[in-house]
Amino acid sequence: MRIEERTVIRLANVIRCVIVFLLTIYSVGIGGEDATPSLPPLSVSEGMGLTNQARDKLPPCPPSADFVMKVVFSRFPGVSAEEVNKFMNEYFTQEIHEVKQMAEVLPDRAVERLTDIVQESINLMKIRSKDAVLFNKMMEEKRLNKIARLRAEAIREARGAERKKGIEELRKILEAAFEIRQELMKRDVERLEKEFEQLKQLVRLREQRKDEIINDRLTELVSGKAEVKW
Questions:
Q1: What is the pTM of this model?
Q2: Nearest in space to 67 (alpha carbons), one of 117, 11, 17
Q3: Tell me, what's the pLDDT at 104?
Q4: Average of per-residue pLDDT across 121-131
Q5: N or C: which end of the chain has fewer CB within 10 A?
Q6: What local confidence, expressed as pLDDT, does residue 64 receive?
């Protein structure tokens, strides 16, 4: 490998370590129990040197994936990282693998991607605890959509009879995913209709209590009492 190539590689590694380190400091702070031990400052010669001695002076770069995890979960106080990790490893296996790979070269993007996955996992865990049937339907739809994308990639490379067969199989997958999506949308419509009826009932009730509501509001304003939603 030429000297110029080694220089570029080492510089990239130094920059990556510094980015991860600064990202962690920003998220978890310095001085607390979870603070990361400070690293010795790097000089230009240490970061760019071509000798083994200079290379050995470089501080070890911490596991990027672990740091990304720590940064992300600092954004979700009160959430059990262990439970969410278990859920993600079961239902977002491929996505987590991609995040770990991304963390090695683009830790900032890995943080944002993992943040989205964690938030989605938390929402799905809440749904699972309240409605297991709905949760299973949603996860089945996600599974079918993932399979559909993979099949579509294979079809783009296929030719002749293989391509025709792939398209037929993909259509069946999409039909199954469509039926689940329709069922989920119907559930949403039912929920919204119920909320709409409750809102109409509230409007009727307020109309019946018009004078009482206005008098209460008037008293609040004149007396300077804490205001409540009216």
A1: 0.61
A2: 17
A3: 87
A4: 97
A5: N
A6: 77
Q: pLDDT tens for residues 128-158?
A: 999 999 999 999 999 999 999 999 999 999 9
Answer yes or no: is pLDDT of 45 > 70. no
For residues 89-98, one letter each, b for 16 or more C-beta atoms within 10 angstroms of the residue's C-beta and e for the rest, the string is: eebbeebbee
Q: What's the first-to-final CA gap in the chain, in angstroms?
A: 74
Q: What is the DSSP letter of 58?
A: S
Q: Where are the alpha helices (DSSP H) in the chain?
A: 3-28, 44-48, 52-56, 64-73, 81-91, 93-103, 107-130, 132-157, 160-208, 210-223
**Which of 84, 95, 165 lies closest to 125 in space, CA to CA?**
84
* DSSP classification of residue 103: H
Q: Which residue has the tokens 């400052």?
A: 41
Neighbour tally for 43: CB within 10 Å: 11
